[in-house]
């Protein structure tokens, strides 16, 4: 996996965790997803990984699939959107 792919994976994870935390009604689960998003935070990972490729990290823009999964999560809730959330990012 290239550095850019690693960065993309971390950025995608952080973004989706934030979406799920916003849609999660259970406060304990919401807090867990916020913590996961913070751990995978795109800005922190971007700074670390940017050093690997010697330039500033690219700006994260979620791809169509991620935006669709986010929309489903917001509309249906995290439990109902679990199958598309469980698939690999991309």
What general outline do the C-alpha atoms trace? globular
Number of helices: 5
Quickly give the structural class. mainly alpha
Helical percent range? over 70%
Q: Largest sheet, described in full?
A: none
Strand content: under 5%
Alpha-carbon distance between the two ends: 14 Å
Summed up, the domain count is 1
Instruction: Write the H/E string, N to C.
Output: HHHHH
Determine the oligomeric state from the structure.
single chain
Enumerate the spans where pLDDT stays under 50 for 5 or more consecutive residues.
none
User: Based on DSSP secondary structure assignment, what is the total number of beta strands?
Assistant: 0
Taking all residues together, what is the mean pLDDT?
A: 84
Cα radius of gyration in angstroms: 14 Å
Question: What do these coordinates show?
Answer:
The chain has 90 residues and is mainly α. It has helices at 3-23, 27-39, 42-53, 64-76, 82-86. The longest helix has 21 residues, at 3-23. The chain is globular, with a radius of gyration of 14 Å.
What order do the helices and strands come in, and which of them pair?
Elements lengths: L2 H21 L3 H13 L2 H12 L10 H13 L5 H5 L4
Features:
mainly alpha
How would you summarize this macromolecular structure in one to three sentences?
With 90 residues, the chain is mainly alpha-helical.
